[in-house]
Amino acid sequence: MIGDPLVSIRCMVYNHEPYLRQCLDGFVMQKTTFPFEAIVHDDASTDGSAAIIREYAEKYPDIIKPIYETENQFRKGTIQRIMSAATHPNTKYIATCEGDDCWIDPEKLQIQVDFLESHPDYTMCFHQAKTVIGNTGKETDRPPAQNFRSVESRDYDSTELFQKWMVPTASIVQRRKCLYVRYKYLNRTPYEDIYIVLRCAELGKVRGIGRMMSVYRVHPNGLTYSPEAAVKYIMISPEHFVTLMKNFSKVDKRVIRMAIANRYWIRARFDKKRFFHDMLMSFRYDFRVPISRMLKKLGLKR
What we know:
By secondary structure, the chain is α/β, with parallel strands linked by helices. It has 11 helices and 9 strands. Strands 1, 2, 3, 4, 5, 6, 7, 8 and 9 form a 9-stranded mixed sheet that branches.
């Protein structure tokens, strides 16, 4: 389709060979009345991901715009800067889909862009997704699968989006202008998806769409579900949540302070070197959390 892309899809890839064809097929099957591009960034994969990207870039040169790295950029924290530089300057919307997830509805982009075009006060929309295990095709109820399936066609505010993680990353379409709003302490926010969602909710309205249009994939090498990722999350989550509280004023302070207190409690139990500091911080942010936890441990509270 001739013309500047209305939508740029950002697709980060690292060793996603088993799933990547499904991901790229989801892009090229989109039926739209507007041009779009997919910036596919291979972050120095050690498997066959780059070869698959080359194949699709040659076959669909108007859609697939590849970037190949020889050094891993995720570790350097430079991926977003690279993706921003590669995005067409006239793009109005940004869609997201990592290389191990995929889109399953050919009308996905059209539906979401139509909504945002006709509702200028909305900054983002998202939709239902099913959660599958690896390449088995089998669905799982492992969290947050239930939340992803339960997205309704209605507005969601910042507090609900924070409390119930219900936004599959591959379902997000946001206005590009939201990307240029900068916040403090972002080096403490390693998980960009929650940052994207709360930033959009801070700047305008966010809409859910009750239609299943993508797949969220759970596998051992994923950034969220590997054992290493679980340990990393425990260790950094208190500061991560504090950063969210400092930046996003529309999230109910009572809710986020309780979450921070809970995260300090969990890390205190996990890391003995930080026990006294983290227990003190848990009491500081919401004393009810550590008291409730201790009563449960003593069998005095269910």
